[in-house]
Task: structure prediction
Amino acid sequence: MYLDSLLPEPQQYSSCVMCNRRPANLCNRCRSCYYCSKECQESDWPSHKLLCQKFANQPPRPSPSHKRAILFPADQDKPQMIWVPCERIHDPDDGMTYDRGDLGPLLGLDNPPKGTRHVEHNPIRARQLGSGIALWARKKAGYAIALQHRDMFLTDGSPLNRSILASVGTSGTVPYEWCGPVIAMRMIWSELYEDITLADFRHALDYFISYGTTATKQSNES
Result:
């Protein structure tokens, strides 16, 4: 098993993705995920290794409007790092500004209706990512992981998502049948996108493991 060394990181507010302890150090290869010890890094490695090298070697950003995202293909065993073009839209009626991600054919050539699940809490790690991501929410803080999917994936004939099952690996089981492709994007409180990290990858996998339990929390589905 190959594990990258950990680089000391001066940021005081970085915490381990696995146990929330501080201080934590960056993975030397991807520089996108923090671990407090080799033990925590080894615990995450079966999943983290699927994207660590891909993250480090992802092609340059095509344009300033593109945001880094993670694609979970339905018909493949490994997730992918991708760039998603995002259009910034200002609504003069309510004065709000938000981003619209162009998912193009990623969800299917049939242009299906899109569903989104906002992940703001990781019950497995007792980690609150943010709150009030929706435009109408009163309290806004932090960020959420927006899981974009085919809205009717349970009834439209979409195949079981192999890459989600493979990504979870030895971390647990997936009690819910996630079908069709899923795109994970990072969204801040004003519904603007920013680049996803591999710490977010861990939180997304924990969501897949815990979804359907009483501990699962999310701001809204649309």
Observations:
- Helices lie at 38-48, 52-56, 162-168, 198-210.
- The chain has a mean pLDDT of 88.
- The radius of gyration is 17 Å.
